[in-house]
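Suppose you are handed a protein chain with no further information: no name, no annotation, nothing but its sequence. What can you learn? This example shows the usual starting point.
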Amino acid sequence: MPNSSNSLANAKPFYAHPFDDDKLKEECGVFGVTGVTDAANFVALGLHALQHRGQEAGGIVSHDAEQGFNSARRFGYVRDNFTKQSLMETLPGPLAIGHVRYSTAGSKGAVIRDVQPFFGEFSMGGAAIAHNGNITNAVALRRELIERGSIFQSSSDSECIIHLMARSLQRNIPERMEDALRRVEGAFSVVAMTRTKLIGVRDALGVRPLVLGKLGDGYALSSETCALDIIGAEYVREIEPGEMVVITGDKIESSFPFRKQPSRFCIFEHVYFSRPDSILGGQSVYETRRQIGVELAREAPVEADLVCPVPDSGTPAAIGFSQESGIPYAMGIIRNQYMGRTFIEPTEQIRNMGVRLKLNVNRALIKDKRVILVDDSVVRGTTSRKIKEMILDAGAAEVHFRIASPPTAWPCFYGVDTPQREKLLAATMSEEEMREHLNVDSLKFISLDGLYRAAGEAEGRNKSCPQYCDACFSGEYPVTPADMIEKGFELKTAAE
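A reasonable first move is to predict its three-dimensional structure. Written in structure tokens, the prediction is:
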């Protein structure tokens, strides 16, 4: 086992803010570096850039020739933990990987044993893995492995990969990882390490992102390009769907161990999850979101005085809507940049303040205006109603919602924490019923074809073979969610 620093003493309680409760939760972020002095410091910076993908906890594993493997796992933000010199000095070596987490599988509370990266000792040496995504057959795998004698230390689906590797008969760790991942269904972008190797793997559909960067004489693997920027690494390319790269020193070996399939990258990465300064599939995330606003203005025009984003994720789409419609763009809602998830324990009085803790209306701008509010999505609808009430309280004449994604009517099983289907507003209501429920003057979502056009598909969505995973909108799951079906989840019927 690596030397580990996992004390619960530094754990901080996390209190879900009402605003956060109405958004899909980012899945996880992974980052790895090899070939540089004090690699863990670079990993900490990378994880800081990926903090939007998981704010619950983070971990780093490093390897040093003299001290071997070392690990640290902490609850809370990267900046509150992995910027402390006393901690970072326990993570020496030229090779390290890290993970930021929002729990999408396993325990939903603060359980340190669920924090990645996970580590295992094998006959040919130790290995650590960090996983972004979700294994859709993890329950069945876990049951099988336990019956065969495996002892699990966490409730995370990702731990299945370590146990499958341990039972593999292949010659080395990369081959054992290949063997293990062939048993896994669902979505996975994995960054792993041995004593001498940095490994990156994406599932055959490429649902979750993973990119390669060059850092001096070394290399970096990251969930997004924005994390390469923060450490001064040069973006090289994306890891292809179904590809495994093994980096040893300055040598990169690439292989494709899985059956080739059409790519089904998560389209919601373009809408919300990824940072706007990242590049996905050769496209600027910011530009895609701006183009979503352009498409929205074409599909759902309305007479109004101002276009206002719901900050911050609605901003690029609102800019695009304004540019296409000719209606002035304005910051009608101001976000409190210092409102964190660890703010204070929410008393009843503070709970009643709700969204106002995080957002405030620019009253002088809004009064007597017809306002178009552009947001990235509507999940439960609770936040949308509160924002509408704030805008009307400020004296707006009309409130029109324009949503930069189609109606979210189906849960995600590939690494996004989504409410149960019956709690998704679009699963039980038509667009007009949602408008009445939110009590706004108009409500329009971008069409699925419009979203695809904004993402660079000029002809829209290919219905026979969609270019992206859009299951949360369409109900068409590219990988059967076996575990959820076993628990009673019903797939989309022909009538739907």
